[in-house]
Specification:
Strand order of the largest sheet: 1-2-6-5
CATH topology: Phosphorylase Kinase, domain 1
Largest sheet: 4 strands, antiparallel
Number of strands: 6
Strand content: 35-45%
Length: about 110
Protein backbone atom coordinates (compact mmCIF):
# COMPACT_ATOMS: atom_id res chain seq x y z
CA UNK A 1 0.00 0.00 0.00
CA UNK A 2 1.36 3.39 -0.88
CA UNK A 3 -0.13 6.73 -0.03
CA UNK A 4 0.01 10.23 -1.42
CA UNK A 5 -1.20 13.62 -0.36
CA UNK A 6 -2.76 16.06 -2.78
CA UNK A 7 -4.68 19.22 -1.85
CA UNK A 8 -5.22 17.99 1.72
CA UNK A 9 -6.98 14.79 0.64
CA UNK A 10 -5.40 11.61 1.93
CA UNK A 11 -5.45 8.85 -0.66
CA UNK A 12 -3.86 5.45 -0.99
CA UNK A 13 -3.21 2.96 -3.77
CA UNK A 14 -3.66 -0.71 -2.94
CA UNK A 15 -2.08 -3.23 -5.31
CA UNK A 16 -3.57 -6.74 -5.69
CA UNK A 17 -1.81 -9.57 -7.52
CA UNK A 18 -4.31 -11.04 -10.01
CA UNK A 19 -2.41 -14.34 -10.41
CA UNK A 20 -2.58 -15.05 -6.67
CA UNK A 21 -6.26 -14.18 -6.58
CA UNK A 22 -6.97 -16.51 -9.53
CA UNK A 23 -5.25 -19.41 -7.72
CA UNK A 24 -7.40 -19.12 -4.60
CA UNK A 25 -10.57 -21.03 -5.41
CA UNK A 26 -13.66 -21.93 -3.46
CA UNK A 27 -16.00 -24.74 -4.40
CA UNK A 28 -19.72 -24.81 -3.78
CA UNK A 29 -22.20 -27.55 -4.47
CA UNK A 30 -25.57 -26.56 -5.87
CA UNK A 31 -27.67 -29.69 -6.22
CA UNK A 32 -25.56 -32.09 -8.28
CA UNK A 33 -23.36 -29.38 -9.79
CA UNK A 34 -20.14 -27.88 -8.44
CA UNK A 35 -19.42 -24.22 -9.01
CA UNK A 36 -15.93 -22.76 -8.76
CA UNK A 37 -15.36 -19.17 -7.71
CA UNK A 38 -11.95 -17.55 -7.60
CA UNK A 39 -10.87 -14.85 -5.17
CA UNK A 40 -10.53 -12.53 -8.18
CA UNK A 41 -14.25 -12.98 -8.93
CA UNK A 42 -15.06 -12.14 -5.31
CA UNK A 43 -12.74 -9.12 -5.41
CA UNK A 44 -14.49 -7.76 -8.53
CA UNK A 45 -17.88 -8.08 -6.80
CA UNK A 46 -16.61 -6.39 -3.64
CA UNK A 47 -14.99 -3.58 -5.63
CA UNK A 48 -18.23 -2.91 -7.48
CA UNK A 49 -19.98 -2.55 -4.12
CA UNK A 50 -17.20 -0.33 -2.71
CA UNK A 51 -17.42 1.95 -5.72
CA UNK A 52 -21.23 2.22 -5.54
CA UNK A 53 -21.64 2.69 -1.78
CA UNK A 54 -21.17 6.10 -0.20
CA UNK A 55 -21.31 5.64 3.58
CA UNK A 56 -19.13 7.06 6.39
CA UNK A 57 -18.35 3.56 7.73
CA UNK A 58 -17.17 2.21 4.37
CA UNK A 59 -13.83 3.02 2.74
CA UNK A 60 -14.57 4.82 -0.52
CA UNK A 61 -12.94 3.50 -3.67
CA UNK A 62 -12.54 6.26 -6.26
CA UNK A 63 -10.51 4.45 -8.94
CA UNK A 64 -9.99 0.87 -10.15
CA UNK A 65 -7.27 0.24 -12.72
CA UNK A 66 -7.38 -3.24 -14.25
CA UNK A 67 -4.77 -3.34 -16.99
CA UNK A 68 -5.16 -6.50 -19.12
CA UNK A 69 -1.40 -6.59 -19.79
CA UNK A 70 -0.37 -6.16 -16.15
CA UNK A 71 -0.59 -8.81 -13.47
CA UNK A 72 -1.84 -6.33 -10.89
CA UNK A 73 -5.11 -4.66 -9.97
CA UNK A 74 -4.67 -1.10 -8.66
CA UNK A 75 -7.25 0.37 -6.29
CA UNK A 76 -7.41 4.06 -5.48
CA UNK A 77 -9.04 4.47 -2.06
CA UNK A 78 -9.44 7.26 0.45
CA UNK A 79 -7.46 6.57 3.61
CA UNK A 80 -9.35 6.29 6.88
CA UNK A 81 -8.96 9.25 9.18
CA UNK A 82 -8.61 7.25 12.38
CA UNK A 83 -6.07 4.73 11.03
CA UNK A 84 -6.40 0.99 10.62
CA UNK A 85 -9.82 -0.57 11.08
CA UNK A 86 -8.25 -3.67 12.66
CA UNK A 87 -6.40 -1.49 15.17
CA UNK A 88 -9.63 0.29 16.10
CA UNK A 89 -11.45 -3.04 16.54
CA UNK A 90 -8.67 -4.48 18.70
CA UNK A 91 -8.88 -1.57 21.15
CA UNK A 92 -12.65 -1.27 21.33
CA UNK A 93 -15.17 -3.00 23.58
CA UNK A 94 -16.30 -6.16 21.72
CA UNK A 95 -19.79 -6.00 23.24
CA UNK A 96 -20.71 -2.38 23.93
CA UNK A 97 -23.78 -1.82 26.09
CA UNK A 98 -26.30 0.44 24.34
CA UNK A 99 -27.47 3.39 26.49
CA UNK A 100 -31.12 2.27 26.26
CA UNK A 101 -30.33 -0.94 28.18
CA UNK A 102 -28.48 0.78 31.05
CA UNK A 103 -31.60 1.10 33.28
CA UNK A 104 -32.06 -2.68 33.07
CA UNK A 105 -28.83 -3.24 35.01
CA UNK A 106 -30.36 -1.54 38.05
CA UNK A 107 -33.30 -3.93 38.00
CA UNK A 108 -31.15 -7.06 38.11
Amino acid sequence: MCSLRCAGCRQAVKILNKTRLKRKKSYRRIGRRMTVTTALDKAHKELAIMKAVNHPNVVNCFEIIDDPEADHLFLGVYRTVSGSVLHALAHSDPHPVPPSSMPLFGLL
